[in-house]
Amino acid sequence: xxxxxxxxxxxxxxxxxxxxxxxxxxxxxxxxxxxxxxxxxxxxxxxxxxxxxxxxxxxxxxxxxxxxxxxxxxxxxxxxxxxxxxxxxxxxxxxxxxxxxxxxxxxxxxxxxxxxxxxxxxxxxxxxxxxxxxxxxxxxxxxxxxxxxxxxxxxxxxxxxxxx
Length: 164
Description:
The protein is α+β, with helices and mostly antiparallel strands. 43% of the residues lie in helices and 20% in strands. It contains five helices and six strands; from the N terminus they run βββββααβααα. The chain has a three-stranded antiparallel sheet, with no helix packed on it. It has a three-stranded mixed sheet with strand order 5-4-6. A hairpin with a 5-residue loop joins strand 2 and strand 3. Helix 1 (60-70) packs across helix 2 and helix 3 (102-116) runs antiparallel to helix 4 (118-128). The protein starts with 10 loop residues before the first strand and ends in a 15-residue tail after the last helix.
């Protein structure tokens, strides 16, 4: 790690802390040459491969913007969308893959969105799963009704306060 002040290569870590959501590690470092302190952020890279084959870094804001369209006119707050995007990212990171298909990101969105708002889920699923007819909608509504009659086994959208 190069010191941003004197460009010396040697520094020692003074303090390390994980960010609240566990997505990065913040390290305070001290240069061995000039003695000045600086901060570094260490994150793991998560890349999304689009249908065209282009790879780009995972971006929570793209998840939020895509889901926001499905949630228009629904009682869903920006905080709800932020928590959903965080859950989607955690789900994808939990696979252990550094590179995921855009299709897998869409699949990771479906379940948390279904728990957040069923109408928004139907809107998103109709585009994402390419519904062709009313029968596709009827089948999706029937699945939602059946799932509504079962006890909830999936955790609700809540921030993870203490994770390791």
